[in-house]
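Sequence only, no structure available. Ideas?
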Amino acid sequence: MTQWRKKGADEVYTPEETEARLAAELPHWTLESGWIRRKYKTSGWKATLMVVNTVGHLAEAAWHHPDLAVSYAFVIVKLMNHAAKGITEKDFALAKKIEEVVQWQPGKEEGTVLEGTPNEDPRFKYLKYDV
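Reply:
I predicted one. Tokens follow.
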């Protein structure tokens, strides 16, 4: 496996470094045609819009904007630093934040009063979580 070292904000990772880092830190993300990419499967249009709005908020707050492909029951997020023409620390940082927020399941946290969405009732099903 290729080793990688953390780089500066706009320093480009090689494809080998990117793949090694994704495997170590973001296993549901892949490198595809120069982008890091993640497909989020949802339960339908309402959940898809919620994911899009969440990603949009995080990207705007970070001032680093992904490309999105949006359909009825999925959202594909693609990140690449256009100015640097490659994958940089900014892409990994935003991908981690998106992953953290979109995959958050309060019902699985200890000590929280938040229940999470009930998956057994299709009216309230939200995301098809990975874990």
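The longest strand covers residues 35-41.
Hope that gets you unstuck.
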